[in-house]
Design goal:
heterodimer; A: about 110 residues; mainly beta; 7-stranded mixed beta sheet; 4-stranded antiparallel beta sheet; 11 strands; globular; B: about 110 residues; 6-stranded mixed beta sheet; 5-stranded antiparallel beta sheet
């Protein structure tokens, strides 16, 4: 069974631009969560989607948004990029709506110049 | 406010010895705890978990201990191997509630020396 895949793996953008990251969960997994990892803050929860609905959201500004499609694939979008948005963005999937064992993808490394 | 804390950013251990990684939490609503292991350029990999109804869970060389009264958990690796060198994240969540996310600590970098 294929794992969680994320595209692209690496991305370089400039301040003010916007970016869209993609995540394909493990087949059969319906819950997708997004996390931001930075050296100083560790992994911080962005949001979670289940059955195309955002169920839970972390403490991030409205510039961070996401969505989930009917095939459970998810995208996250960051508008008006800031230097501080440079981070590793991780996607995790789990089988059911409330599951504590999440399977992570390799992440997308975003660099904002 | 950090609800899950890993106060040691790094730990160095000799191969064959025991590695003990610690984690503290502040939210008494947490009732499920997990450890993840992360290598550079890869996503975190689930290692072991424990429910609050238990105080110990063992899986091969890995054992997690939970002390609910102290709001403290620890991961023991015995014996430690060089391949165990990675960043270890402690995470917590609430079972059965409306929260579907994990709260992570900032991680402890373990180095196992041959």
């Amino acid at each position: 069974k294929a794992g969680v895949t994320q595209t692209p793996r690496y991305l370089i953008k400039t301040r003010g631009q916007q970016v869209t990251l993609s995540c394909s969960p493990i087949s059969g997994h319906r819950s997708v969560s997004w996390y931001q990892q930075t050296p100083g803050q560790g992994l911080q929860f962005l949001f979670e989607y289940f059955s195309e609905t955002q169920r839970n959201k972390g403490n991030f500004p409205g510039r961070f948004s996401g969505r989930q499609f009917s095939n459970s694939r998810s995208e996250m979008n960051v508008s008006t990029l800031e230097l501080g948005d440079s981070a590793l963005y991780l996607c995790a999937s789990s089988v059911i709506q409330i599951s504590n064992e999440q399977f992570f993808g390799p992440g997308t490394r975003l660099t904002v110049l | 406010d950090q609800q899950v804390k890993q106060n040691s950013p790094s730990l160095s251990v000799q191969e064959g010895r025991i590695s003990i990684l610690n984690c503290d939490y502040t939210n008494s609503m947490f009732d499920y705890f997990l450890w993840y292991k992360k290598y550079p350029a890869e996503g975190p990999t689930f290692l072991i978990s424990i429910s609050s109804i238990k105080d110990k869970n063992e899986d091969g060389r890995f054992t997690v201990f939970l002390n609910k009264s102290a709001k403290h958990l620890s991961l023991h690796i015995v014996p430690s191997q060089p391949g165990d060198s990675a960043v270890y994240f402690c995470a917590a969540s609430k079972l059965g509630g409306s929260q579907g996310n994990l709260i992570f600590g900032k991680g402890t970098k373990l180095s196992v020396k041959p």
